[in-house]
Amino acid sequence: MLSNRAMNITPSLTIGINTKVSQLKEQGIDIINLSVGEPDFTTPEKAKYTAVEAIIHNKTRYDKVTGLIELRQAISDKLQNENNISYTLDQIVVSSGAKHAITNALMAVVNPGEEVLIPKPYWVSYPETVKLVGGVPVFVDTDKNNNFKVTPSDLEKLVSKNTKLIILSNPSNPTGAIYSKDELEVLVNFCVERGIIILADEIYEKIHYDCPFTSVASLSDKIKNMTITVNGFSKSASMTGWRVGYTASNSKIAKAISSIQGHLVSHPSTISQYAALGALVKCDEDMDEMVSVFKSRRDLAISLVNEIDGVGYIEPDGAFYIFMDISSFKEKFKNSESLSMEFCNQLLEKEGVAVVPGMAFGTDDFIRLCYACSNEELTRGISKIKKFIESL
């Protein structure tokens, strides 16, 4: 009854964990949820009021497939002023979230059977989305001693005549690592020289701390022409439920993305788009304050994790995750099919703490914990992780 496409994908493990946490909470069980990849801030007031005003003024009819002109102009200005990239309005397509933007982009450029390079660890939806559009995910092993940042030597042996695209997450989910400008230049020039399109997922770009952020498409005109930049408002403006993202690409790709989106969803909710416009032009201070709070939580989380014997972590320069190395406990779970799954299941059962197993990101020796929560909840959660590890 089901299509091969539907039968070939794996449900999102992170969504599954959140569902399980919700069920446990409904049963009255106290759960500390360090798994969800969502800011715990509310949408900034000025963004909400912009949406309310749009409703009051009946801005609720069909609009352009590519998105509101005012929003695309604000995105164009933002990319020019903050990222040093010049895009015309026709090169920007607003979508129903960054996940939708990624799907649009892959549908626009990837043919059935063509290969997409996905460095490990990866965000859980990358390989499944590639499979949905008929592409072939090719997983690239990276070195934890290099903070899992992919290099040309990692790619060299995997590039083939069927390689079409590489997905780069920067700042990274799940590691929080950020590529330096020099690292990016070497990497993307390698790709461009081989005709490999770069899908630059920059959804966490505003959430960076001690390291500067460089947008891939800003490196050169040649690189820009081969890059599809994906961004949105879920993380930077705490607008996860509003579902607004966008792509910026060359005109040929943007036109294809627009055609695809026109048939699938027409355009994102106009009201959500007005909220995004409000966030972009009125809420810089709110976003800066949120990043400042995340940095203090990052520092707190690191100080607490440093007190746990036997674990390591990837230095989190951005996003709001700590990717914790639990490989030293393999012997304790040697009879389990998955170290990270069994670790997380027992942690949830015994201590009531939910984190995400590294196998969801293709790296079983790690777990991901999210520090987008209160200092109190973060402290309690990591203290319970420490207690659990000490009991092993």
Distance between the termini: 46 Å
Proportion of β residues?
5-15%
> How much helix, percentage-wise, in residues?
40-55%
Shape: globular
What value does the average pLDDT take? 96
The number of E-state strands comes to 13
Descriptive overview:
By secondary structure, this protein is an alpha/beta fold. It folds into two domains: 4-42 and 285-390, Aspartate Aminotransferase, domain 1 (Alpha-Beta Complex), CATH 3.90.1150; 46-281, 3-Layer(aba) Sandwich (Aspartate Aminotransferase, domain 2), CATH 3.40.640.10. Helices cover 42% and strands 14% of the residues. The chain contains 14 helices and 13 strands. The protein has helices at 4-7, 13-26, 45-56, 69-83, 98-109, 125-132, 152-156, 181-193, 221-225, 251-264, 270-282, 284-305, 339-351, 375-390; strands at residues 32-33, 92-95, 115-119, 136-140, 163-169, 197-201, 227-232, 245-248, 312-313, 321-325, 353-354, 356-357, 366-370. It has a seven-stranded mixed beta sheet with strand order 2-8-7-6-5-3-4, with helices on both faces. It has a four-stranded antiparallel beta sheet with strand order 9-10-13-12. Helix 3 (45-56) packs across helix 11 (270-282), helix 5 (98-109) packs across helix 10 and helix 12 (284-305) runs parallel beside helix 14 (375-390). The longest helix has 22 residues, at 284-305. The radius of gyration is 21 Å and the shape is globular. The chain starts with a helix and ends with a helix. The model has no long low-confidence stretch (mean pLDDT 96).
